[in-house]
Amino acid sequence: MTTTEQYASVRYLVDNVQAGIDFYTNHLGFTLNSSAAPAFADVVRGPLRLLLSGPASSGARATPAESAGAGRNRIHLTVDDLDAEIARLRAAGLSFHSDLVAGPGGRQILLADPAGNLVELFQPA
Asked: What start and end residues bound the annotated signal peptide (predicted)?
């Protein structure tokens, strides 16, 4: 197992920790690292440790009310075949929050977790 010093950790505030665990592990290839649901869990994918903080967690309680909603920041996950990922996730009943965008660096699309936090799926050019 990777030690915590080898992870880049990002905290996402979620309404329902178990729904977040299910979304990230079932659809995006994360592994459950630890859980104290319904307050908190963390899931891992490669060097990314995603902290899922429910309303009862200390991380969520420390957030000012005006900052509690999902923001414009997002985690960025690189995929080998974006078209296949889009088809797989749509088949699982998920919807996207942007159109497919192409640019000089590659192609991307935005997906939201059950709490509205954004996940960018990206395929390099």
From this structure: none
Whole-model pTM above 0.90?
no
Total domain count, the chain: 1
- Write down how long the chain is: 125
In this structure, are residues 121 and 106 in contact, taking their beta carbons and an 8 Å threshold? no
CATH number of the domain that residue 64 is part of? 3.10.180.10
Percentage helix, strand, coil, to 5, in the chain? 25, 40, 40
Per-residue pLDDT tens over the stretch 2-51: 555 688 999 998 999 999 999 999 999 999 999 998 999 999 999 999 99
Distance CA 101, CA 51 (A): 28
Rounded to whole angstroms, the Cα distance separating 111 from 117 reads: 8
Contact 111, 119 (CB under 8 A): yes
**72: left (phi > 0), else alpha (psi -120 to 50), else beta?**
alpha
Containing structural domain, residue 57: 4-124
* Residue pointed to by tokens 């159109």: 99
